[in-house]
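Quick review question:
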């Protein structure tokens, strides 16, 4: 309810205040006194310059820079001016500020914008037929918006959009469920597993005993194999009583090898006298070295100097010396060869070695001396005998086969359990989504049915109210007052100018009255709840989730957003 308005520099008013009652308020007075200005100021406080005549801020009183309107409505105080706008609660709490915030608050609180307000609550001068002259689609849209039933279309479209991905998920889950094979009988498989586990437990006992026996056999076989190896080594021994050590035998072997080689080479020295000429050989080598140097110094002596061509005085004597040196070098060389062979034969004869055993015997003794410790070691195996063979191949194969079979059955059971869980998960998901999809489709059908009945019921209601006003204004001159589905009047073009104004006024007053009441004789939620599988409260919660909280709640004839 509007219970007060204050004007400051608004058109013809410099400072004006007026209280209103909760009954009919009539503004009367001669032309130009400011009746329209007061009504327009109310519209300006609500919707700003969109609701005023002329250009923006043309309403400011001539000669003044600023003006404002303060409107007291319900529990709020709305102030709007050219440089200040806000709305606050009567307790002083600020609710909105500035032009944009104030407009949004008005629409959110009262569900009206300037256009709808001009249709349902306020008719400006010379604008009485503006609604009647609208195109059919525009007229229907404006009434439906006033009555909030346009929300049903948004809600329906919203639910349709949300149903698309859910429908796709339902189809995909159907495909998944169709591609999964049904799980096998888990009871039979578990019973079979119990039997196999029992057999495996029994066989495991036999298998462990077999492993123990095989371990003992393996150990005994290792001892016996060791004994056989020792016996084989000992059997190769020829000389068990050897007085010499390994080192002594090795020295004898080396001497025999040298002696044998020396004996072979001595066949080449049969005509050579054995003598040790090593001292003479050393002296002769030194003399030969001296002679060789002298020969090198004189070997290029000529009669004349190769540089200047002059004759060399002692050339002949030097040549004689060279000849003497060469002769002596040759004599020493021949003698040195004879001394060298005598010394070599002497050395070979010194390398000859006489032993009690030949080389083969010494080598065998060296081999046997390494094997002698095995004789004593073999004595410790005197009580070892060949063990009886233990074969666990078959029981190992049987045990492993049974264990593998148990593992395969356990794997199959595990896979079947996973398969069952997967199927149940898909099935539960499918059932939930299918249930939700059915609910959404039922809700869309409900919206269509509700909207149809709402329209069918609202048109007669508007028509009835408009007819009463029209008959009153025209003194029942026209008995028939028919309203079409597009909220246009039947035979409107046949009325006179004043009569058409009365018809337009009656229609707009009826629409204004209907838009401000909160109950209609329409389809009740109780009548459609039976098409859903849950109660009304759960249905409302589900539909609120689907509709982003934009829901028309229908209960006992009441409609509320």
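Suggested answer, residue by residue:
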């Amino acid at each position: 309810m509007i219970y007060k308005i204050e004007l400051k520099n608004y058109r013809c008013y410099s400072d004006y205040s007026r209280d209103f009652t909760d009954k009919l308020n009539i503004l009367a007075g001669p032309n130009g006194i400011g009746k329209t200005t007061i009504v327009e100021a109310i519209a300006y406080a609500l919707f700003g310059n969109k609701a005023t005549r002329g250009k923006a801020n043309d309403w400011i009183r001539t000669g003044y820079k600023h003006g404002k309107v303060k409107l007291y409505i319900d529990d709020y105080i709305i102030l709007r001016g050219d440089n200040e706008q806000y709305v606050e609660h009567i307790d002083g709490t600020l609710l909105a500020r500035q032009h944009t915030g104030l407009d949004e608050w008005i629409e959110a609180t009262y569900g009206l914008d300037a256009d709808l307000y001009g249709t349902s609550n306020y008719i400006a001068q010379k604008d009485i037929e503006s609604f009647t002259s609208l195109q059919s689609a525009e007229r229907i849209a404006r009434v439906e918006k006033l009555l909030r039933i346009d929300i049903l279309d948004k809600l329906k479209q919203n639910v349709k959009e949300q149903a698309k991905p859910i429908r796709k998920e339902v189809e995909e889950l159907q495909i998944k469920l169709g591609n999964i094979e049904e799980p096998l009988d888990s009871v039979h498989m578990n019973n079979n597993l119990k039997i196999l586990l029992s057999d495996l437990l029994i066989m495991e006992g036999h298998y462990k005993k077999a492993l123990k026996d095989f371990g003992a056999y393996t150990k005994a076989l290792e001892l016996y194999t060791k004994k056989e190896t020792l016996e084989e080594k000992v059997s190769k021994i020829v000389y068990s009583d050897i007085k010499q050590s390994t080192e002594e035998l090795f020295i004898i072997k080396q001497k025999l090898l040298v002696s044998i080689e020396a004996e072979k080479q001595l066949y080449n020295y049969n005509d050579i006298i054995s003598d040790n000429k090593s001292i003479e050989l050393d002296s002769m080598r030194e003399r030969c070295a001296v002679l060789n140097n002298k020969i090198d110094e004189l070997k290029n002596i000529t009669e004349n100097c190769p540089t200047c061509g002059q004759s060399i005085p002692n050339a002949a004597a030097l040549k004689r010396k060279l000849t003497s040196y060469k002769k002596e070098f040759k004599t020493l060389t021949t003698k040195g060869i004879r001394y060298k062979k005598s010394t070599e034969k002497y050395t070979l004869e010194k390398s000859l070695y006489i032993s009690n055993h030949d080389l083969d015997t010494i080598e065998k003794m060296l081999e046997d001396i390494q094997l002698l410790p095995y004789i004593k070691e073999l004595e410790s195996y005197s009580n070892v005998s060949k063990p009886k063979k233990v074969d666990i191949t078959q029981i190992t194969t049987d045990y492993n086969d049974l264990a593998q079979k148990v593992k395969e059955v356990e794997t199959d059971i595990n896979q079947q359990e996973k398969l069952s869980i997967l199927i149940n998960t898909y099935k539960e998901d499918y059932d939930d989504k299918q249930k939700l999809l059915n609910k959404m489709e039922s809700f869309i059908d409900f919206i269509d049915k509700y909207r149809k009945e709402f329209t069918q019921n609202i048109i007669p209601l508007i028509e009835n109210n408009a007819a009463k006003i029209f008959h009153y204004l025209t003194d029942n001159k026209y008995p028939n007052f028919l309203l079409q589905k597009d909220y246009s009047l039947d035979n409107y073009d046949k009325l006179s100018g004043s009569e058409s104004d009365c018809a337009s006024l009656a229609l707009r007053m009826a629409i204004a009255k209907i838009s401000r009441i909160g109950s209609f004789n329409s389809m009740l939620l109780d009548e459609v709840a039976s098409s859903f599988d849950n109660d009304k409260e759960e249905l409302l919660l589900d539909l609120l989730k689907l509709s982003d909280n934009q829901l028309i709640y229908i209960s006992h004839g009441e409609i509320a957003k």
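Why it works: Residues 530 and 536 are 9 Å apart (CA to CA). The chain has 14 helices and eight strands.
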